[in-house]
């Protein structure tokens, strides 16, 4: 176990990772689940880590629960050990410890995407790794794994630049980007993952790798869209774009106008260029003091708009929406990108939620009528949000640096969100699935990874990518994590288990497993043939 302490060399989080010698795997077997660890082993881990190391059912159990708390309060993690990483060396030590103890590893930044509890393993929290460095000349930002989008937006704005951030600036950069990432600029510039230049990642062999299109093309492809299947990302280098002239906000209508507004919005979407992004949400907000009075306890429609252009131009564009029905609120105005949160007005405080999303190939009149039948004014359902978002534009085109992002074939996305509270444990999922079932004739064959929500069946998660993407992702998973150390959340399965790989006599040589080798080519060919047979059926 002395190798744990050997991983504790100080690292500079803002510097690119240097190649490291891989750690020898402890066992050729899948991670086990354990609720306790040997105290002596934990003490050695603490000497190797700069941040806190907290153990369940010990004197620091309360601190562990606080450190492991997710933004989504419906999810309560109960890991065996939590490592509060402050740098890449801490992550290396945590993964090395987990491998030596045969434990699974999960990672959490903010916990916005925490859809299922992680128990009996090692949870690495990254929020202390929040450094952001902007290179205005190269139009890039180097971002630590714990940074949130407001950090990057604020650092880039003085240089006249902006990141491909999401609708809520409190969301973590890493998780958002690894799952694709959609925001106000995406129809113009593509997914956030399309603008990743390089990543630093600790893989299951406890090796810190600097990954880009030149050094490790397969892993670089898979990380950008493959979510957390391949390791713990400790830093990313992202492209920035010229800070746009932005006219953005929302138009809010009473629920009685739902049919008119939705059909008008559907037709209006067909006239838009890539300079305009939009979504519409049927909201049933609670009757609570923090909600504006005219929106409490009733159905309202929020049409969100972000136009990259002057307000006069946007006003002409919005005329069909503004004339179709009276509005309760209309705050579509020229605003700085630093004020982009005002468009969607997503919650800023932690809350319990249950989510399920999907992609749609089209939104015709029949699809809108089907949605209205299950979520319109006459419906009684416990969902707070039923949202449609216009996709397409640059998101539908292959980027300069191809990646594993799912959902490029979707024309619209569908998201359903309800309170993740015990009293509605059955009602919310049932209502969400009823909405999705009503729109199933228009469902696309792929789904945005960040939109999967509480879908936790791993075969179903894999089905969110195309057949060819699945084959390549699973082959890459086999190369870098055949032991399935990173199995929590929306992760793909390896093509071949570690036990099967042991027959190749390569399991004990992670340096060979971590690079494109004959083994990788072999299983890539196997999966190509497998998916070809499936398509023929």
Care to give the gist of this entry?
With 537 residues, the protein is α+β, with helices and mostly antiparallel strands. It is built from 18 helices and 19 strands.
What does this structure look like?
This protein is an alpha+beta fold. The protein folds into four domains: 2-125, Uridine Diphospho-n-acetylenolpyruvylglucosamine Reductase, domain 2 (2-Layer Sandwich), CATH 3.30.43.10; 132-242, Uridine Diphospho-n-acetylenolpyruvylglucosamine Reductase, domain 3 (2-Layer Sandwich); 246-459, 3-Layer(aba) Sandwich (Vanillyl-alcohol Oxidase, Chain A, domain 3), CATH 3.40.462.20; 463-536, no CATH class. The protein is built from 18 helices and 19 strands. It has helices at 2-5, 39-48, 61-68, 88-101, 149-156, 173-178, 186-189, 217-223, 258-269, 311-324, 341-344, 365-375, 427-438, 458-462, 467-480, 498-502, 510-513, 518-536; strands at 53-55, 81-84, 105-108, 122-125, 132-135, 140-144, 161-162, 196-202, 208-211, 232-239, 241-242, 246-254, 276-284, 299-308, 329-330, 333-334, 353-360, 385-390, 412-419.
CATH class of the largest domain: Alpha Beta
Determine Rg (CA atoms, Å).
Answer: 23 Å
Unreliable stretches: 1-29, 502-528
* Portion in beta strands: 15-25%
Q: Which class do the helix and strand fractions yield?
A: alpha+beta
Mean pLDDT: 88
Measured as a percent range, the helix fraction is 25-40%
Extended strand count: 19
Number of domains: 4
As for the CATH topology of the largest domain, it is Vanillyl-alcohol Oxidase, Chain A, domain 3
| Main beta-sheet strand count, sense and barrel state | 8 strands, antiparallel
Distance between the termini: 51 Å
What is the architecture of the largest domain at the second tier of CATH? 3-Layer(aba) Sandwich
